[in-house]
Amino acid sequence: MTRVDSRSAPPLEISPETWRLAWVVAFGAFAGGLDTSLINIALNTIERDFGADLELAQWISSAYLLALAVSLPVCAWLGRRLGVGRLWLGALVAFTVVSGLCAAAPSIPVLIGLRVLQGLTAGLLVPAGQTILGQAVGPGRLGRVMARIGIAVVLAPALGPVLGGLLLHGLSWRWLFLINVPIGILAILAGLRWIPHEKGTHTGPLDVAGFAYVGLGLPLTVYGLTNWGALGTPEPARVLLPLVLGCAGMAAFVVHALRRTDPLLDVTLYRTSAYTAASVAFVFNGALTFGCALLIPLYFQLLHGEGVVETGLRTLALGAGTAVMLPLSGRLTDRYGGGPIAAIGTLCTAVATGAFALGLDQQPVLEQAMIFLLGMGTGMASTPLMVSAFTAVPRDRLPDATSQINIIVRIGGALGAAIYAVVLARALSAGPHHAFRVAFTWQAGTGMAAFAGALLLWFILSRNGDRATAPAQH
Predict the structure, then answer these.
(1) Given CA atoms 44, 367, 379, 405 in this order, what sign does their dihedral have?
(2) Residues 120-160: tens digit of each pLDDT
(3) Do residues 398 and 135 lie in contact, with contact meaning Cβ atoms separated by under 8 Å?
(4) 3-class DSSP assignment, residue 222
(5) Which of 55, 190, 238, 293 is most buried by a 10 A CB count?
(6) How many whole angstroms separate alpha carbon 155 and alpha carbon 283?
(7) pLDDT for residue 319
């Protein structure tokens, strides 16, 4: 493998064509990412509209997230088989069409079924887009380019509650799905012009057994963790059983993949120390990012008694901090490498959540400052970790890396959200102030774990003499 050391060189220039490609991919990722949080705020409204119970309505959100987890493992194989640009465009077209159908759903069961299809297509957009960008850019440019898609991936869920609250304030819940249609059409038109349309390469047949293992194991794991957070207790049927089966499926997949010459995903990438360190840090950073999306709105609703719109507006600082820092983190990563930038970002998240744990959020200005710092930290950590993982692997293994990193983030996010929800629920008996301090203490611990992972990554990259690197070549 060859790498490029940019220890003292300034970041290389990026062509206008590459920037256009990055923004098109980011636009598509934004459409898919928006739906991870946009619909949550409307579940009560949809439940009342159809006269259903909340337990059934929750599947409108859960079905999307579980289906998204199913499609992630097969994205690498589809990208090689069809061509990653064609896969991205096809997934975006399907996502847009299904979004329009969701808006016209006549019942909750039909809506849940359509959400499954929508999640399957959304699960392909981000890893396929990351592969397109990773294969298109050259040395010393990946950080700035990946930061653009990072804006969509991180900012869309943060803006979901705000946009959803504003739309519900004066329009039907169906507009939460219809808004995806014009966004999708614009992204499709731009993609037809600027996304590469190369044909796929010759690949072996789909690893059906491997897909069965991970295609069942991953959503069962996410389902069990989600139920644990919602129920607050490890129920045998709804939490322990899916977790055991899910973990068994994932373990069986790893054993199966190590024995095959053409596995669904190349798990031997974890023999690369930098890739493994970035992945470990990503688990904790994913837990923190998804956990913030859960805890911060509840903090305003349960502790301060804010309504939906007010909560959305007071959480804007989280998305604003992320939006400010993501482009800068990309430039810093290209210049100084992923290790030190990821370490600074994860440390910021630990400091911000630690301030809430210590009760330093009594003043509104300080409260908003800490939320803004939290957003800056998550934004500053995600891009360098992503770039470090992708540049540690051979270029032809990039589809495997993008799928695996997205799987790790999904598992870390589900685990973090479950743990924080359980901790918060169990501590509420002592009062909301105490409960949120305990929950934020757990978040601060997660931030320190992510910081430790980033320090390990920094050490490995420094030992190897790596800074900003291009995807490795054979």
Answers:
(1) negative
(2) 998 899 899 889 988 888 557 888 888 877 777 666 766 77
(3) yes
(4) helix
(5) 293
(6) 19
(7) 78
**pLDDT above 70: percentage of residues in the chain:** 93
User: For 225-264, how does the pLDDT look when each residue is reduced to its tens digit (9 = 90+)?
Assistant: 888 877 778 888 889 999 999 999 999 999 999 999 889 9
- Evaluate whether 22 touches 148 at the Cβ level (below 8 Å): yes
What's the CATH superfamily of 16-206+264-464? MFS general substrate transporter like domains (1.20.1250.20)
In the chain, domain spans? 16-206+264-464
CA–CA distances in Å: residue 73 to residues 146, 169, 205, 278, 473: 21, 38, 15, 19, 24
Question: Tokens for 109?
Answer: 């069961």
**Chain position carrying tokens 């008996």:** 429
Pair of tokens at residue 219: 């959503």
pLDDT-derived band at 54, boundaries 50, 70, 90? low
DSSP H helical ranges for 39-170 = 43-50, 54-57, 59-71, 75-82, 84-103, 108-136, 142-170
Mapped onto helix, strand or coil, the DSSP state of residue 394 is strand
Q: Can you give the pTM of this predicted structure?
A: 0.83
Cα 382 to Cα 386: distance, rounded to the nearest angstrom:
6
